[in-house]
Every structure is written in C-alpha cells, then in structure tokens.
Write a structure and sequence with these properties.
Length: 319
C-alpha cells in the first residue's frame, strides 16, 4: 500500500479543498472549506453556475446590495458544501464569517442560519460542522450551539489552552494548525530542521491529543494546515487529518512504511497535569503564548480579507 492508504488505517482523512474533482479523486471521509478555499473555487470557470445561483438566491431575499452580499457569501459556502456532501460519506465543515470572531451572539445566529440552509435542502445537521475561530467568544458560541445539536469545528487553534477550553465547552472537533505554527517558529526563532518529529506544529498537536485522551474528552483532534508530508506521517493515529490535494497526491506516490504514532494507550502513559479553565486563565495563558496570539489574530485577518476579496469579485455580478 502507498503511504496514503496506510495512513487511512489509523486516521480519518479529510480533504482540505473546495474542488469537487479533487475530493472525488481521493475519496476522503470528510471535507473542510474556509473563506480562502471558497474564494479560490468561486473564481474557477467550472463553478460559475454555483456563483450565479448564489447571486440569484441573494437577490431574491433582499434588495439592499450590502445585505445581498452577506446572503450570497452564506449561500456560496452552503452550496459548495452541499455539492461536497453529494461526494463524501461524512461531514463538511462550513465556516462562519471571520468578522464575527469576537461576537458570540452574532456567531450563534450565523451558525443557526447556515444549519437551516442545509436542512432546507434535506441534509441532516449531523453531517455539518460549523467552523468557528477559537477565540473565547467563539468557544462560548460553540458551547451553546453544541447543546442545540449544532456540531462545531473550532479552527485557527494554535495552543493547548485554546484546545482545553474547546473541550470543556463540548466542541465536536478542533483544528490545530500545524504548518502555521511552524511558519512562526521559522520566522521568529529561526527554527530549521528536516526532522518532522520535532516540528513545533507536530509536537503541539501531539500534546493536545495526549491531553484529550488522558482525561477522556470526546472532542476530536483534526490536524490541519500542513506544509509537508513529514508532518502528516508523524501524526498517524490522530483522530482526523485534513490535507490539501497537493499533499494527498504526494502521499499517494510514497511507498515508505507508515507507523501509528498517536493512540489512547500511549496518551495514558504520559504524565500530564490537568489545567482548570476560566475566562481569565484562558486570556492570560493565550496572551503569554506569543505565537498563538499572533497567529490567531493573523488568521482572522486573513480570512476576513479573503471574504472582502470575494465580495469585490461578486459585486459587479449583482449589476
């Protein structure tokens, strides 16, 4: 078996793309999208009909252009999600507007709207994961949504303190960003190594995974934002890994032996101290982690910027 086939024995593979052809080719269990991926996909000729239908739906619901754009963004995300759900057997992650990352109530309302749009088209909410940034406000929104049966994927996660708060809130899934953690250490601390086992993004996910399993949390860990196949192979055994088509292709061509690196049995042997979480502790420990603070803020800005670019792309088409 190739490396990808072996990896699937230990870990649920998720496609990190909005491209239907790539999803169909690699046959992942789940798929994730985000504003950047939706922006890329929306500009491809083969998805022009989806864009047109989303614009038409937005126009039919409101006469104000600003409102139409917001409706269209939701419609695009959901329509891409629906097409993905027709291909995969599992779940699709659809992201809440990043500009709501510090507004708990607005995040809850947006998530409810997205779920209703899926349910209107006949898709059960258990197949949808609402992606929310791992701010304190986002985590509190997820806590309420989970109690309503709306499953959440807490994204832009860069630290154990964020992960613990998400688990305490009962989030279904978290997405720690492996590659972006590595990016920070390369830039700020001149980290250089080809050994993926000491990659700071990899070690961060292992630490979170072991903490969850050691203390019996049900929240799933989905490693995300990979820079190379070495990072992926070092996380074999993680609950889920969301991987771009480029890296999926590389794994498919690799023939090395893939061994399980993460498991509940291994986690139970670790010596880990439990951390009690409240808002003050969360904000202080996140503030003390320069990497996590900076990458969280940067990620929110980047997703918000891509939403603005998508609005600029769509605006002329409303005329």
């Amino acid at each position: 078996m190739n490396a990808l086939q072996q990896l699937k024995q230990y870990t649920t593979i998720v496609a990190d793309t909005g491209d239907f052809e790539s999803i169909a080719r690699y046959q992942p269990a789940d798929a994730t999208t985000n504003p950047s991926l939706i922006l890329q996909a929306s500009q491809l000729p083969q998805y022009a009909d989806i864009v047109k239908k989303s614009i038409a739906a937005a126009k039919s619901q409101d006469s104000n252009l600003d409102n139409q754009l917001l409706i269209c963004l939701d419609q695009l995300s959901v329509t891409f999600g629906i097409e993905i759900l027709k291909i995969i057997p599992g779940r699709v992650s659809t992201e809440v507007d990043a500009r709501l990352s510090f507004d708990t109530i607005a995040t809850i309302n947006k998530a409810r709207r997205i779920i209703k749009m899926y349910e209107k088209e006949g898709f059960d909410r258990e197949r949808i994961l609402i992606k929310i940034a791992s701010t304190w406000e986002g985590i509190k929104a997820a806590e309420i949504l989970e109690k309503e049966g709306i499953r959440c994927n807490l994204t832009l996660l860069f630290s154990k303190i964020q992960a613990i708060a998400c688990a305490e809130a009962g989030a279904r899934l978290i997405s720690p960003f492996v590659g972006r953690i590595l990016d920070w250490y390369k830039k700020e601390q001149n980290f250089v190594s080809n050994d993926a086992s000491i990659d700071p993004g990899v070690t961060s996910v292992i630490e979170i995974y072991n903490y969850y399993k050691k203390f019996g949390y049900q929240t799933q860990v989905m490693g995300a934002s990979f820079r190379n196949t070495g990072e992926i192979i070092e996380l074999a055994g993680c609950d889920l890994l969301t991987i771009s088509p480029v890296l999926l292709s590389q794994l498919e061509l690799m023939t090395l032996d893939v061994e399980r690196k993460l498991s509940t049995e291994i986690a139970n042997q670790t010596n880990i101290k439990r951390i009690e979480i409240n808002e003050n502790t969360f904000r202080w420990l996140l503030n003390e982690n320069a990497m996590a603070t900076e990458k969280l803020a940067e990620g929110i800005r980047k997703f918000a910027a891509d939403l603005q670019l998508l609005e600029k792309f769509l605006t002329p088409q409303f005329a």
